[in-house]
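Hi support team,

I'm filing this because I wasn't sure whether my run with flavin-adenine dinucleotide finished correctly. The job status page said complete, but I'd like someone to confirm that the output block is well-formed before I use it downstream. Pasting the exact inputs I used:
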Amino acid sequence: MAEPMLKFVHQPQERPVKRPAAQRRKDFGEIYEGFPLARAEEQAARCSQCGIPFCASHCPLGNNIPDWLRLAATGRLKEAYSLSSETNSFPEICGRICPQDRLCEGNCVINKDFKSVTIGAVERFITETAFSEGWVQPDMPVTEKRLSVGIIGSGPAGLACAESLRSRGYEVHVYERQAEAGGLLRYGIPGFKLEKHVISRRIELLQAQGVIFHLGQEIGAGKGALSFDELQKRHHSLFLATGVYKAKQARVPGESLKGVVRALEFLCEAENPEPALNSAGKRVVVIGGGDTAMDCVRSAIRQGAAKVTCVYRRDRSNMPGSRQEVLNAEEEGGEFMWLAAPEEFIGCDHVESVRLKEMRLGVPDSDGRRAVEPTGQYSVLEADMVICALGFDPEDLPALWKRDDLAVTSWNTLKVTKNGYETSIPGVFAGGDIVRGASLVVWAIRDGREAAKAIDHYLSTQSTQTSEGVL
Ligand code: FAD
Ligand code: SF4
Ligand code: SF4
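And here is everything the job wrote out:
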């Protein structure tokens, strides 16, 4: 039989079809179509089956990429799905929203001369096929352990941990302050990157598996909230996956003017037919250069903003966000002002303009990123709405939960044992953004899965001790 792989020399890279920008601007639907079967097989067959696959070592989940590419290229899709889902709880989500250019695909060895294998699109194809063929089923436990774990937060870290613990037989309760589960997958990442039904489908599988969701349930202080201490009494172990939500400030005059809003306030309602923060017909200025800023630019365009300008203090090559997302935003009509930073938001009661200081690049810092300094030149940009997308810090959890024994770092992220995910409180584990700081979905999934192993180990040891009368 002819070698099915190594087709990269003759077969050029092709990405999934992107809907035309003029059409994309009108709705919040995903912009990429999935691969059809023939294209997925053809693209998977470009892989050169490296002995040391750098794609896999740069995937936070250590996905067995060359093997499932080979299976996909040879039409063995059920086996490809089985292998891919062994290491990834939500491959269809990662296939859509991982920044592949910085992870697996950015490290694909054929990338230099031949353009990488389109790993993310094939991963999405394999899992979507599995869903449509009915191969994705709830991972039911073989035996029930009669031990329960409480998880605070239903973002990707909490959900991955829940799935993994439930399949091991634990009773799993997920506590979520929002009305629906999903964390930033639902209340942050816009539908044009990840449609909401993709998340709901996973939540339904978790419910079918027996995971119990307590939605609209705050853990903290205040009316209707459950205290952390109460939660500790209810469960044998806890996993904290609360993410980071405190928006960083621009720290310039005029920040409290009406019309100056935070990125998540804007994004979490942006797709509603009548959003509280509506940019339709407005001149919008977005401050920031990360992926959240791009999401704001592109959401404002879809709401019908008159003009959307993204202001970033470094230049295009030094921005933290994905190049592809900038390109998508430009195609859709977003404008960029590089090397500019806000000096003041101007207006009486409501913002009317932004005074900007021009910046220039200085010497690179220890990470290789160029520092910036003002040139002394200024300009003014008219604005009816300013969206600040400057990143997020953690809440002060020890204060919120009145637990001084919950140790935090100087950035207020939770301290955990190295590779063990256990916090300073015995039996209480943590992962995702609340440990890493604002990060990525794929890292949150990894943390959830690894923490589940650590919790399983912890509880197995505890229950052995109990049955032996040690406790
Ligand atoms: P979260 O997803 O933040 O979930 C935490 C959950 O805990 C939330 O549902 C919250 O309501 C709940 N919670 C918090 N405190 C309490 C409490 N006291 N009681 C009850 N519930 C509580 N990453 C990517 O990989 N690709 C992308 O394209 C991408 N785009 C992004 C776009 C935006 C706008 C943002 C903000 C982030 C984006 N990210 C992206 C980052 C990614 O979303 C996060 O890294 C990831 O969601 C972190 O997962 P998590 O489970 O740790 O936390
Ligand atoms: Fe690439 Fe993300 Fe999939 Fe890993 S999980 S193979 S990094 S797309
Ligand atoms: Fe295939 Fe690229 Fe991974 Fe090599 S690095 S195994 S070519 S996907």
